[in-house]
Write a structure and sequence with these properties.
With 249 residues, the chain is an alpha/beta fold. 36% of the residues lie in helices and 20% in strands. The longest helix is centred in the N-terminal third of the chain and has 20 residues, at 25-44. It is globular.
Length: 249
């Protein structure tokens, strides 16, 4: 069973990201992360007919990109977007009515409401550092991945990008701060094979003058983009996961 601490963190995240959704910040994420996400999709080797989980889907913009790629062919693929914020999911559904192969579900990364051995691939964009029990989340992803299924975790907040550490104290929910090497070891310890890390630079144009709050000037922003996001890649071995030994709460 999910412990009380995990449930409390999930509830805190739900409240915070519901407020983000109401402020339109879910839709803003597409503008902020489209470059690194498109590069990641190119590396995923997606094929028509595949079944993909978008973990921490927010307002659903990345889910729609995935649905476009896997939706072709004789047997259209399926994309499931999962988010702990019911307001994000409501908005994702409202913005995705044109997609027949796209489903959005409210749920926790640490207790995924889906069957075993189902997804060919998992994508998670800018959400994994929010999960209070990352080991449990990786275990759940392992369970729902099909044998030889592939996991892609894309994050901007990690210890090796010192600029991103400025966000930690500003965020209203706890975050996990690990290094690239610590994440690689964590995936290996969780049973994934062929684990590797790739840096994905942000290729968007940086304005000559910067007026935001996170960087002192445009030069810092350019350096942040050059350092890039961290993409963690792993593959489930050719094994079938048994049904979980606990009930959903």
């Amino acid at each position: 069973m999910t412990n009380e601490k995990t449930l409390a963190v999930d509830e805190q995240m739900r409240r915070e990201f519901n407020q983000w959704a109401e402020a339109g910040r879910g839709e803003e994420m597409e503008h902020h992360h489209i470059s690194i996400t498109e590069q990641t999709l190119a590396l995923m080797g997606l094929k028509p007919g595949e079944r993909v989980l978008d973990l921490g889907c927010g307002a659903g913009w990345a889910s729609r990109l995935l649905a476009q790629v896997v939706g072709g062919g004789e047997r259209p693929g399926q994309v499931v977007g999962l988010d702990v914020s019911d307001e994000m999911v409501r908005r994702a559904r409202a913005n995705s009515t044109a997609y027949d192969n796209l489903l959005f579900v409210v749920g926790s990364a640490q207790q995924i409401p889906w069957e075993e051995n189902f997804f060919d691939k998992v994508l998670s964009v800018e959400s994994f550092y929010y999960y209070g029990d990352q080991e449990r989340a990786l275990s759940e992803l392992f369970r729902v991945l099909a044998p030889k299924g592939e996991l892609y975790i894309l994050i901007n907040l990690y210890r090796d990008n010192h600029y991103s550490l400025r966000w930690v104290d500003e965020l209203k929910v706890p975050v996990q701060v690990r290094s690239e090497q610590e994440y690689v070891e964590l995936l290996k310890e969780s049973g994934y094979e062929d684990v590797r890390a790739v840096r994905i630079p942000d290729l968007t144009t940086t304005p000559e003058e910067y007026s935001g709050k996170w960087f002192k000037n445009a030069a810092e922003l350019r350096d942040f983009k050059k350092i890039g996001a961290l993409l963690l890649i792993g593959r489930k071995p050719d094994v079938v996961s048994p049904p979980r030994s606990y009930e959903l709460s």
